[in-house]
Structures
1.
Amino acid sequence: MSVKVGVVGGGQLARMMIAPAVELGVEITVLAEQPQMSAERAADEVGDYRDLDTVMAFARAVDVVTFDHEHVPQDVLRALVDAGVAVHPGPDALIFAQDKLRMRARLHELGVPQPEWAAVSSVDELQAFIDDHGGRAVVKTPRGGYDGKGVRVVENAGDADDWLAALPEGDSLLAEELVDFTRELAQQIARRPSGERVPYPVVETVQRGGVCAEVIAPAPRSGGRVSQVAAEIGATIAEGLGVTGMLAVELFETTDERLLVNELAMRPHNSGHWSQDGAVTGQFEQHLRAVLDLPLGDPSPRQPWAVMVNILGGPASDSLESRFPLALGAHPSAKVHTYGKAPRPGRKVGHVNAFGDDLDAVVYEARAAAEVFAD
Ligand SMILES: Nc1ncnc2c1ncn2[C@@H]1O[C@H](COP(=O)(O)OP(=O)(O)OP(=O)(O)O)[C@@H](O)[C@H]1O
Ligand SMILES: [Mg+2]
């Protein structure tokens, strides 16, 4: 018997599923958006993930369909399910990672703590929300945002004029209170279709310019209450939304010690890259196990601390590979991962994982190794 996973989307997340798939003996194939993407090694097909015929033909040749991103349209996903294709996560769960307004409404129903929010579709509605929330708000486009694109802090409703003007009839933007957070955390949890769940330790994530820059696992000072509350929130969402595969819950820890949900991702996530080398079962292998409904692996950290530092941008004048001798030579205990992407300012082109007993030393090691790839 051989099992075959089909991944829609050819980015770095699909790329990083390839190694554990090979190790486990699972066939993997990727529907990439373009030739020569990150997951090229498994990209047997190039095609439009919005086109039903393309995705259906791809799905027919595999045992389960999963994703590198959340952009496959609902009608395509539903047609796959209707045709008997195993899709994980399924459309009924994925909608809440596709649409931040739907997510806010559903989390409210589930009683999950989150920032105050409202759907706004006019300058007046947005201004009223701003006035009610201390003169500031965060405005988000409900769909299609990533890496902080589609997120804006505003003090006047006019600052979101362009987005409001471009709204299709009947659509709204998401307005949120500007949360006074002390730090950002992320809780990952794997869930199988048959119901088994495995939580990872809660981690601290550091964003710069709306982009994840560093992750510390486990989150410092998270023993006891913080890790317990985060795990409960993760379990409530995974179960309540029927998520299959890896779920990431982005959280704010507030100055008054509450945890509020920022957003969800239903796939491997940047906040879990540390687990590739730092946990008994990394998130990419765990995602494959979960979508195949195989028993889940142990998520325990192998060392007291793991730190992940993203390589953002990369060298302008030469390739990432040209820096390998220096990075690998000077940092033999760090694990370097690159995504086969051309360097471009701000672009996520790789990351470094480091581990050990002493957090300061681990942070230093991961940053120093990543710095070798900076311009
Ligand atoms: N309500 C809020 N209050 C304060 N800061 C916020 C709020 N919402 C978002 N942010 C900040 O903006 C960042 C990006 O927001 P969000 O995660 O919603 O956007 P995204 O572009 O979908 O994310 P990603 O980078 O995870 O793809 C957050 O990590 C956080 O730093
Ligand atoms: Mg986010």
Note: The two ends are 48 Å apart (CA to CA).
2.
Amino acid sequence: MSFNSTTPGVSGETSRLALLESQLAALFEVSRVLSRSLDLRQTLREVLGVLHERARLRQGLVSLLDEERGELLISALHGQDAEPFEAVSYRPGEGVIGHILTANAPWVLPRLGDEPRFLDRLNLYDPDRPFIGVPIRCDEQAIGVFAAQPPVGAELLDDRARFLEMVANLIGQTVRLARTVEAEQQALREERDKLRREVRGSHGFDSIIGRADAMRLVFEQVRQVAKWNTTVLIRGESGTGKELIANAIHYNSPRARAPFVKLNCAALPDNLLESELFGHEKGAFTGAVSLRKGRFEQADGGTLFLDEIGEITPAFQAKLLRVLQEGEFERVGGGRTLKVDVRVIAATNRDLESEVRAGDFREDLYYRLNVMPIRMPALRERMEDIPDLARFLVAKVARMQGRELEITDSALRVLMRYDWPGNVRELENCMERAAVMSENGVIDRDVIQLTGIDLNAGAPEPSRPATAMTVPGSGAVDFNDPDLDERERVIAALEEAGWVQAKAARLLNMTPRQIAYRIQTLNIKVRQF
Ligand SMILES: Nc1ncnc2c1ncn2[C@@H]1O[C@H](COP(=O)(O)OP(=O)(O)OP(=O)(O)O)[C@@H](O)[C@H]1O
Ligand SMILES: [Mg+2]
């Protein structure tokens, strides 16, 4: 030190060197703090702390422009909670801080108290100390101000100001990143909420068609059972809407906001099924490169839908029974017992009772699952729902194809003559095929016949009373209704008359010759059922 004091020039260099060294160390520390977290207020406070400790910068302040209000608000103050200062704001151009923002340039004051524009709104600053304020920029634009006070009589103020600028640049990048992340999170939250609303809408009762008594019973059961955590077993032939009902139970239950996780048990062999359901630890088997949560864990707090439960092997039935009984399991290759809170809904199209009798399905598991059975009626047991369903499904295809589609009553009557072994799914496929076949968007009887459903294979009992063939919702056919399309009118009469032309002619007040002529000119394919 004595050497330095005798040579003032070298002393200046040395103290500058010392300053730069301490600034370098502080900058390193600041960059570490900034990269640690995206909680902006917290990080900024920590940065001010580092500058206080390492660079002897006091009364550090970060204020950021609030875009909505168009004012600078305090985001962080060293050693203080910013909250009490939330009411303090600076308009652009106002006071020292506001001026720095507008000028978008640093401002160095050797003694703060000498500056007439100094407002002292915060009542924190030491008027005897120097003051340095620099803009915080984002894409060249000033979005805030960073300011602090070096010690009384500090030299090298320009060097210090340059250092503050460097820190302000880092802060600017962090603010930009935090804002981008916040905007993205906001967008994701909105997207999630929108999807949630859509999912709720598409799994509400409105999107499940059925007014037959058998379906009303199903709806009532869903309404009742949704409230509780009871295990539900949905029975019914393929394509009757089992999955749709499982969805409806979940989305109408108190668990609606938690996950709904599905697994088709028929799709996987035992070992894969086990790791799918229970997950596996890293290295549990070849290919298990990392830990993986199973469906039970994913569904924690929500609902797990086990489709085709009748297909699992007896060995696996035992494993499943334990989770259902205890709510406990281990990941494959793991010793730790995990506990989850999951509501289970299972579905099958198998006759589980006879499988139990044959010894293929464990009786205890059967009773565990069959707490609340819901039986989905086959479509042929609720023919009266076909018109509503067909119209609903046609509207669905229309939305998909982005065009208008319409299904005629004669087409609906044809659909009601078929016994639909593939149930609603088959009807849905048939409607999609019909829509593809229909050039003008009208799905009539002929288009249905083009789809290739084998009407002769159905159950068109000739003894079925004619009333069973009328289309609900359209009422009994009035053959003299002038609004009815001529072709539809003739077809309706023919159907009513069991395709006996003379009888149909009487219904239409025509002669047999007239109706024969119409059948020919309207290109109606006469079928005998
Ligand atoms: N009542 C209904 N109202 C409207 N659409 C329905 C109805 N029932 C079933 N569907 C539709 O029919 C199709 C088959 O339904 P779902 O997949 O729920 O049947 P499933 O019983 O699970 O069949 P599978 O046993 O073949 O898996 C789905 O596209 C579904 O949206
Ligand atoms: Mg299914």
Note: Residues 242-243, 307 surround magnesium ion (ligand 2) (CB under 6 Å).
